[in-house]
Design goal:
The protein is mostly helical and 95 residues long. Helices cover 87% and strands 0% of the residues. It has one domain.
């Protein structure tokens, strides 16, 4: 049961992180368009992306981070501990 929950939360984490990544990449094209056009239209495009769009991308990324931490806790992963680093080194030395 724990493995199924871990897999489900990991998939949710992956989907949200991918959405956040592409959500952050997507405004590249409007910014390039704004650089080409210039003037008031460029300012409106940039302000819209900064005020309305990027806060949502940051929220999605933050929610993804929470799901990732929950998945690590449920899966009993210790990716950021000294103990996990030492375990990898011991396995390499045995070979």
């Amino acid at each position: 049961m724990r493995k199924k929950i871990f897999d489900l939360i990991s998939k949710i984490y992956g989907a949200l992180m991918m959405a956040s990544f592409f959500g952050g990449l997507l405004p590249l094209f409007p910014f390039i368009f704004a650089l080409i056009v210039g003037g008031d239209l460029a300012e409106k495009i940039s302000v819209f992306l900064y005020d309305k769009y990027y806060p949502w991308v940051i929220i999605v990324g933050s929610i993804a981070l929470v799901f990732g931490l929950i998945a690590m806790y449920i899966g009993k992963l210790e990716g950021l501990s000294i103990k996990s680093v030492g375990a990898d080194n011991d396995k390499k030395e045995d070979k």
